Structure formats: C-alpha cells, structure tokens
Amino acid sequence: MPVSPAPRPQWSPVERYRRSLWLLTVRDLRVRYSTSALGYVWSILDPLVMASIYWFVFTQVFERPVGEEPYIVFLLVALLPWMWFNGGVSDSTRAFIREAKLVRSTKLPRTIWVNRIVLSKGIEFLASIPVLAVFAIATGAQLHWQVVLFPLAVVLQAMLVMGIGLIVAPLVVFFRDLERATKLALRFLFYASPIIYGITDLPEGLHFWASFNPLAGIFSLYRGAFFPEQLDWQTIGIGAAMSAAFLVIGLLVFRRTERAVLKEI
Predict the structure, then answer these.
(1) What is the percent of the chain where pLDDT is above 70?
(2) pTM for this one?
(3) CB 252 within 8 A of CB 166
(4) Which of 7, 200, 231, 238 to pair with 106, CA 20 to 30 A apart?
C-alpha cells in the first residue's frame, strides 16, 4: 500500500510568524557573512575602531573629564547598542525596496520585513557582548547588581528600533529622499545621545530635555551594570514611555500605508 505523506503541522498565526521571522533572520545573517573572510569580526570591528578613536581623543589629546573610568568600557557599553540602533534604522529605510518582489508575492505579514532587520542587528549586538566583557576584565571594571537591568534595556531598544523602522520603511517608498535624511538625522543623533559622554555630564538645563531622547534612558540602563551612578530613573521612565510611543505610532503608520506601499513597489 502506498504510504500517505505525513500531514503538515498546523501552526498558529503567531507560531508561523515566529518561524518565518527566524528563517528570514538566519538568511540575512548567512548572506551578510558568507562572502566575508572575517565574518563575525566585522560586526565588532567598527565599534572597536570608533571607541579607540574617542578614547584617544578624550583621554590622550584633550583629557576632557567626560564619562567614567575606565573610559573605554564606558564608551563600549553605549557604543555597541548604538550600532544596533543605527544599523536597524538605516537598513529599515530599504526594507521594502530591496525585497520588493518577495514583499509583493508572499502572504507573510509585512511587518516581518522590518522585524527581521531589528532581530538580526540585535543578534549581532548580543554577539558583541563578549568583546565588552574582555575590555571590562582587562581594565578591572567592576560589575554591579544593576546588570539585571540589561534585559530591560534590550527590550526597550527593540521596541524603539522596531517602532522607528515601521515608520521609515513605508514612508521611504513614497519619499525616497527620506533615506538620506534619515542618515543625516542618525549622524546628529549620535552626538545628541550620551555615548561619548554621560547623562550626568550634561548641564542641569539640558538634562531634562535630553531625557526625551529615548536612547538616553536605554543607555543609562546599559551603563548601570558598570557605572550605577549613571542610572537616572526619570530619564529611564521618559525613555520607556517614548519607546512605547514610537512602537504604537510605527504600527499605526504601517497599517495606514501598507496597501499603498504594495501598489507603489
């Protein structure tokens, strides 16, 4: 008797989305590193070079008292998540244009084309944590109990990157100049965020307004693991609210523009 094929598993929509998201993310990571001899090293080389430059400028040239000691750890603990944010938002501007054929032809929820970028960049960020650990050990940086706040920072940052990605991804389809404008905004945001300096280094008059940059609260949570005095709960609270607001706005913008995007691409 012929053997009947095994029935296909009946996955729920959530399970189907999760599996598809993971497959697309793995595909992105494989494609990104398949033609590279150094592979994983490239994901950490850029922040390491940047951190080395800023460490040299602010400790060996100007000796300006910003941040905390060891300064290289202070830099990396914010610079590494910045690379996730910068890469996630920048790549989201091409999420639909680069995969136009797949976006049109598949029945997958279209948010998956943004979320796969957020997840792949987040995995690269997590993969760079051992580099931070090496520098922390080498410089004698002390780890504090506030390290338990690290997962909260990851969740808030994922919400923020996802929200902004869901805003820029569809809008770039209609306004192509928005891609370049986003890159310029990211350059400005790098210096407007407490990366090479701490939130406590800001003048009192700027401290409150800087809190409305959600990255300020997120970086405060990351830095709390090594520098508890950098924890500012007002900034963290405002940053959490802003991250949630960006996610809600992103979902609304995406839902309003989804049909028009499919026609445009």
Answers:
(1) 90
(2) 0.86
(3) no
(4) 7
DSSP code, position 143: P
47-75 burial string, b = 16+ CB within 10 Å, else e? bbebbeebbeebbeeeeeebbbebbbbbb
pLDDT band at residue 11 under the 50/70/90 scheme: low
Q: In this structure, are residues 110 and 91 in contact, taking their beta carbons and an 8 Å threshold?
A: no
Helices (H), 68-149: 71-92, 95-98, 100-105, 112-127, 129-139
Residue found under tokens 């890469």:
87
User: 3-state DSSP call for residue 265?
Assistant: coil
Q: What is the mean pLDDT of residues 142-161?
A: 93
Tell me if 122 sits within 8 A of 56, measured CB to CB: no
Smallest Cα–Cα separation from 82: which of 178, 205, 193?
Answer: 193
Answer for the pair 161, 247: CB distance below 8 angstroms, yes or no: no
- Strand, helix or coil at 226? coil
Structural tokens at position 58: 């602010």
Distance CA 6, CA 265 (A): 38
Q: Is 48 left (phi over 0), alpha (psi -120 to 50) or beta?
A: alpha
Measured CA to CA, the distance from residue 173 to residue 109 in angstroms comes to 17
The total number of residues written for the chain in this structure: 265
| 30 backbone dihedrals φ, ψ, rounded to 5° | -65, -45
